[in-house]
Here is the input.
Amino acid sequence: MGETENRGIELAMNWIALDKSKYGLNVGFNIGFNKNKIKSLA
Amino acid sequence: MMNNFGVATAWASTEIGNDYWIAVDGSVGEMYGYLSDGRYEVSDFSSYDEVNEKWILNEGVADNSGVVGAVRPGKLKLKDITGDHLVTVDDCTVIGDANPKHTGGFNIDGPFIWIDISAVFSWSYGNDIYNANKVEYTTGRYQFRNMIDIMADGKRWTDVNADGELVNDKAALAALNANTPCGHLI
Here is the structure.
């Protein structure tokens, strides 16, 4: 039928802000830039 | 080689034709259709032809009648992108893209002994949304259907005066619709 292409960049960060025996705190962030393209239709 | 082609989601059965567009160098998720040009105003017409019961458009004003039926003031107006003063299927174009520019998120997580509380946030930025609800609830394809508030009586166009008579006089029709920001029910 055809051909598609998916390209992009994704970034993820995780921060362990606190790591004690009884409690902790983690913060995460992620972002993605993705493109979709129809390359050809056969 | 296959040509570029339109796809009908058919959410409104056959009332709407192709509403997505598949094209080389395009994206999956491109929305396809007519561009709105607001509504026909009384000033777009030169006169009303009583004999043939037809409104006559000014020269240079695009004629939609092939798409939305006979035109009269208040009727939905579509953009004539081919410039031939006729709106046809050739005036359909890509009108939106469901693909976002970026997506992302963040989370915060706090473990405490045997309980763990987290909050997760995410976004999608730059994508167009195909608001089928707005299409459905601003068009009166069937009589007595519920509409959203922008189509309320007094806000939408009306062809009928307080006595229930169809108005075809330019001045009277303009006066009747002086405070109606919205278009005709098509």
